[in-house]
Amino acid sequence: MYNFLLKKRSRIFWIIIAIFVGLSRIWAGVHYPADVIVGAAISILVAVFVYKVVPKLNVVRKLIAIYEKGEQTVLNKSRSKEN
């Protein structure tokens, strides 16, 4: 579903947007440069953690299995109504 975030062109686009948002926060005077830099660093660390660790957690796998089972149930019901 979120494969578009992993493509190189899209990734560069989102990085540029993030940089402009950070610069705009400094320009508007609502944050100091250190606030923006530390916020970006924390965000990057959390994103890497979530990308690497969360899919390996057993709880997440169980929740995804439950979701997919429910999704199949809903899709099968909607397909049977169309026929």
TrEMBL record:
Record flagged with keyword Transmembrane helix: yes
Source organism, top-level taxon: Bacteria
Coiled coil: none
Alphabetized InterPro entries for the sequence: PAP2/HPO, PAP2/HPO_sf
Domain Phosphatidic acid phosphatase type 2/haloperoxidase: residue ranges: 8-57
Residue stretches spanning the membrane: 12-30, 36-54
Keywords in alphabetical order: Membrane, Transmembrane, Transmembrane helix
Name recorded for this polypeptide: Phosphatidic acid phosphatase type 2/haloperoxidase domain-containing protein
Source species: Virgibacillus kapii
